């Protein structure tokens, strides 16, 4: 099976929310039934006309605008509208994953249709080659739509994490190396290790260091620096990113493969995530550095939007 084309990897594709695509496969993995009535749902009745089937599906497409979970960023959510079907089918997508070994993206979600209209072959079967895989025929045309607000929030969070990197590089003289980024809204942070003897930040200096870091972060937002997204030859990417390339990507089996490099606030980093167009777009929610923690030579910088966001 061919790898799924990821629209968001290009600069302009990063900001594209919709695309047409072709179905590679659509597998029903579970069927639940309810009866729709005013005021709520009840278990299935003897009257099939009132029964609704909720099909949990896994959809593979040839191309998608949805960002799969990974790289420190949650997946997009959204919808897949299946065109030309006997029934209007709309899949609500709640999770998107990628098989890193094949590049194939799976969209997980649900489709709700009248129970009587579920074809007899759409039965749950662990065999991926079973008839359930043909509930929506391969080659069917669909429209993929990313939830705009969720994408926007995820992109701001990821960009803000890179601004933390850029701010750290301004004030630490290269002493701290980013080793982990968690760009989820339930507590985003970037973690650094120190190459200096003893590591970390002396307890007496932490308050002053945090003040300088907050100021540098805010200056980069005020400068409204444009984001640049490029896919570069491996050697050029290495010259820009240095050893961050090896830390962020395991390219041992494809050492000469092109690399997607995202430049945020002048900071070059290999990255597969989504971002906003410029650092100035982080002003709206009041993104800032919130604090830092030092433990065993590691420095964890917490960041986030203003409390009221």
Automatic annotation (TrEMBL):
PANTHER family: ALANYL-TRNA EDITING PROTEIN (PTHR43462), THREONYL AND ALANYL TRNA SYNTHETASE SECOND ADDITIONAL DOMAIN-CONTAINING PROTEIN (PTHR43462:SF2). It is found in: Cytoplasm; Plastid, Chloroplast. Signal peptide: none annotated. Its cofactor is Zn(2+). This is Alanyl-transfer RNA synthetases family profile domain-containing protein. Its main location: cytoplasm. Gene3D superfamilies: 2.40.30.130, Threonyl-trna Synthetase, Chain A, domain 2 (3.30.980.10). Residues 1-282 form the Alanyl-transfer RNA synthetases family profile domain. One of its GO terms (molecular function) is catalytic activity, acting on a nucleic acid. InterPro entries: Ala-tRNA-synth_IIc_core (IPR018165), Alanyl-tRNA_Editing_Enzymes (IPR051335), Thr/Ala-tRNA-synth_IIc_edit (IPR018163), Transl_B-barrel_sf (IPR009000), tRNA_SAD (IPR012947). Transmembrane segments: none annotated. One of its GO terms (cellular component) is chloroplast. It comes from the Eukaryota. Belongs to the class-II aminoacyl-tRNA synthetase family. Alax-L subfamily.
């Amino acid at each position: 099976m061919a790898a799924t084309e990821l629209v968001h990897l290009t600069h302009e594709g990063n900001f594209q929310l919709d695309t047409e695509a072709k179905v590679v496969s659509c597998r029903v993995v579970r069927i639940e039934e309810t009866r729709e009535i005013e005021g709520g749902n009840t278990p299935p009745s003897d009257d099939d006309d009132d029964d609704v089937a909720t099909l949990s599906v896994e959809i593979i497409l040839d191309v998608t605008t949805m960002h799969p979970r990974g790289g420190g960023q949650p997946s997009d959510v959204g919808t897949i509208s299946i065109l030309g079907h006997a029934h209007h089918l709309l899949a609500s997508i709640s999770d998107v994953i990628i098989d890193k070994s094949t590049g194939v993206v799976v969209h997980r979600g649900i489709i709700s249709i009248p129970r009587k209209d579920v074809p007899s072959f759409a039965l749950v079967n662990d065999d991926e080659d079973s008839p359930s895989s043909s509930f929506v025929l391969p080659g069917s045309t669909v429209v993929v739509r990313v939830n705009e607000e969720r994408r926007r929030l995820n992109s701001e969070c990821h960009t803000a994490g890179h601004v933390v990197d850029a701010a750290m590089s301004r004030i630490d003289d290269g002493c701290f190396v980013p080793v982990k980024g968690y760009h989820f809204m339930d507590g985003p942070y970037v973690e650094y290790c120190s190459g200096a003897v003893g590591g970390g930040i002396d307890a007496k200096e932490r308050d002053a260091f945090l003040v300088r870091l907050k100021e540098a972060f805010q200056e980069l937002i005020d400068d409204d620096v444009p984001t640049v997204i490029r896919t570069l030859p491996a050697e050029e990417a290495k010259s820009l990113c240095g050893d961050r390339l090896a830390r962020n990507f395991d390219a041992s089996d494809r050492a000469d493969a092109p690399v997607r490099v995202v430049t945020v606030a002048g900071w070059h980093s290999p990255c597969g995530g989504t971002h906003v167009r410029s650092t100035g777009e982080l002003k709206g929610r009041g993104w800032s550095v919130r604090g830092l923690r030092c433990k065993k030579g590691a420095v964890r910088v917490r960041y986030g939007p203003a409390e009221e966001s």
